[in-house]
TrEMBL record:
One of its GO terms (cellular component) is extracellular region. Residues 1-54, 87-109, 543-570 are annotated as: Disordered. Residues 553-570 have a biased composition (Basic and acidic residues). One of its GO terms (molecular function) is calcium ion binding. SUPFAM superfamilies: EF-hand. It is found in: Secreted. Its main location: secreted. InterPro entries: EF-hand-dom_pair, EF_Hand_1_Ca_BS, EF_hand_dom, SPARC/Testican_Ca-bd-dom. Keywords: Calcium, Disulfide bond, Glycoprotein, Secreted. SMART domains: EFh (SM00054). It comes from Brugia pahangi (Filarial nematode worm). This is Calcium-binding protein CBP-1. Residues 1-18, 87-101 have a biased composition (Polar residues). It comes from the Eukaryota.
Length: 580
């Protein structure tokens, strides 16, 4: 050692050690900086994913457990954060197939961690993003319940039991490995449900489901037509002649459910007024009343029965189940109506029978009804059974609501988009000389929500009630037009009367007669007679348009003072129209 030097022999080693420590600190700082950047990127990605969550998903309510539970959750999330960079996109739904999830190959320098944090293990694969709706890298109970409900209709209680069974560390979340454990359990529950239901729809009791049996029950429950069922059937079993066992039937049910949810979303698109992706009770009431005339009280019970997550509103899968209940109610109503309409006692409705009831209630002729009847006649046998008749009635009601909307444009004098009692009275008097008291009584019946005004659906019911009242009145006074007492009213009995009283050319009268004679029988039924009267009144009003029609006056005001309302209306009906 050189003299004068105070350097210790280990100084060089100490200096080297210090340099290494500095390098390690720099590396740690760089790693921390990279981790912070990575966390920021992940937070931004999670925010973007949350913005893309389906509008009908309600995240699970977070449970504030004790400190040990919170610590376990924090530990899991820290481990999931470390593994997050390994995750890759996946679009397949894990409840559809029984094949295990494909694991991503481990990265050489990635930390090796198990669920308990003890000892090295293989890498955790990422969770399925189609189930992980909030993008937090773990599957909550609400997310698993939602996926199982969407695809298989399994209730939340059933899934909660399975969830607790596979959630080994009781942290309230499932990793991809734990999710692989619950998938076969969910599929087994779905197949078990299919097996039980198969016993109900298997009409020949051979333990298998034929295409015909599938079409029959799917039309009844979902309103999905035979051709669509055949197309979906081929996606499960290419051969239409092969019958399905419970396993295949479970797959068919999943596809049918998916289609019903898509149809439900189409209805929700128009009915969801606040555009929150859900149907609240008030919106559900409007839908049920428009489709089937179901009262608000019954609707509230229906909503409660299908609200699987108990949030007081209906998401798309829940609304699909709500629509099934409406259809079931429609079929029950159809069976009762069938007993009235089915005059030949065949248990089905022919075109003639359907035409008669639709004409009396709504004034629809065969030209309008023909396509509707053909659409409802799924088996194309020329008759409608109770299930088909329910579909026919639904289409007819929808058409009536559309017509009511057109009429509303004409009679809504204050332009508020509703019909009040005064506007209703003016219309009923102008068309049918209906007494204001009777009009008010019908108005109250049609005013389902008791708002004092009629919307388009309520107006459709009001117009139907007014029409039925007018037909009843025409029936009671039919003999006044039957001059030769042969129980029919022909053009010969009407044209001379119309020519003398209203100076209408017989050619025009015959045109009106032909127009309203919807069954082309050469004589007018009471319903056709009401329409004939409307045509004559409309013609005279337009002809005399230089003197506006005063809706506040009776059509036969002169010479009717002191007479009863019934007598006045009788004279007015017989005279058809009197403005002179």
């Amino acid at each position: 050692m050189p003299q004068g030097s105070n350097r210790h022999p280990l100084d060089s080693a100490s200096t080297s050690t210090m340099q290494q420590q500095q390098q390690q600190e720099q590396q740690q700082q760089q790693q921390q900086h990279q981790q912070q950047q990575h966390q920021q990127q992940q937070q931004q990605q999670q925010q973007r994913q949350q913005q893309q969550l389906p509008s009908n998903f309600r995240p699970a309510i977070q449970i504030n457990g004790d400190k040990s539970t919170q610590s376990a959750h924090a530990t899991l999330m820290a481990r999931m954060e470390a593994l997050r960079r390994l995750q890759q996109g996946s679009t397949s739904n894990q409840f559809i197939s029984t094949e295990p999830s494909k694991l991503n190959p481990p990265v050489a320098d990635a930390p090796q961690t198990d669920l308990s944090g003890i000892g090295p293990t293989g890498q955790l694969p990422p969770v399925d993003k189609s189930v992980d709706l909030d993008g937090d890298g773990a599957l909550s109970l609400a997310e698993v319940q939602y996926a199982a409900f969407v695809h298989h209709g399994l209730s939340s209680n059933v899934i909660e039991s399975l969830f607790n069974e596979v959630d080994k560390n009781d942290d309230g979340y499932l990793t991809s490995i734990e999710f692989n454990d619950i998938r076969p359990l969910v599929l087994a529950k779905a197949e078990s449900a299919a097996q039980r239901y198969l016993q109900t729809v298997d009409k020949d009791h051979n333990g298998l489901l034929s295409l015909k049996e599938a079409q029959e029950y799917i039309l009844k429950e979902y309103g999905i037509g035979n051709r669509d069922v055949e197309r979906i059937w081929r996606l499960v079993v290419p051969n239409l002649n092969v019958e399905m066992d419970a396993t295949m039937f479970s797959k068919l049910r999943r596809r049918i459910r998916a289609m019903s949810i898509r149809l439900a979303r189409l209805i929700m698109k128009n009915a969801d007024k606040n555009e929150d992706g859900h149907i609240d009770k008030r919106e559900a009431q409007k839908i049920a009343f428009e489709q089937e005339g179901i009262s608000a009280g019954d609707v509230n019970e229906m909503v409660m029965s299908v609200d699987d997550n108990n949030d007081g509103e209906l998401n798309a899968p829940e609304f699909a189940d709500f629509e099934r209940i409406i259809r079931s109610r429609a079929i029950d109503t159809s069976k009762k109506a069938l007993k009235v309409v089915d005059r030949d006692g065949s248990g089905t409705v022919t075109m003639d029978e359907a035409k008669r009831i639709a004409f009396d209630h709504y004034g629809f002729d065969e030209k309008i009804l023909g396509p509707f009847f053909a659409q409802a006649d799924e088996n194309e046998d020329g008759q409608l059974d109770p299930v088909e008749f329910a579909g026919f009635r639904s289409v007819i009601r929808s058409k009536a609501v559309k017509n009511a909307l057109d009429i509303m444009q004409e009679i809504d004098s204050d332009g508020d988009g509703y019909i009040n009692n005064s506007e209703a009275v003016a219309m009923a008097r102008r068309q049918d000389d209906m007494d204001p008291k009777e009009t008010f009584n019908l108005f109250v019946i049609a005013d389902q929500d008791k708002s004092g005004k009629l919307d388009k659906v309520e107006l459709a019911d009001f117009l139907r009630l007014v029409r039925l009242s007018a037909i009843k009145f025409a029936t009671e006074h039919f003999k006044e037009f039957d001059m030769n007492k042969d129980k029919t009213v022909t053009i010969d009995e009407l044209e001379e009367l119309i020519e003398l009283k209203y100076k209408i050319d017989r050619i025009i009268t015959r045109q009106f007669f032909k127009k309203v004679d919807v069954d082309s029988s050469g004589d007018l039924t009471p319903g056709e007679l009401v329409d004939f009267r409307h045509e004559i009144r409309r013609f005279v009003t337009e002809r005399n348009s230089q003197r506006p029609y005063d809706s506040t006056k009776s059509n036969d005001q002169d010479g009717t003072r002191g007479e009863s309302t019934e007598e006045v209306r009788k004279q007015q009906f017989i005279s058809l129209f009197d403005q002179n």
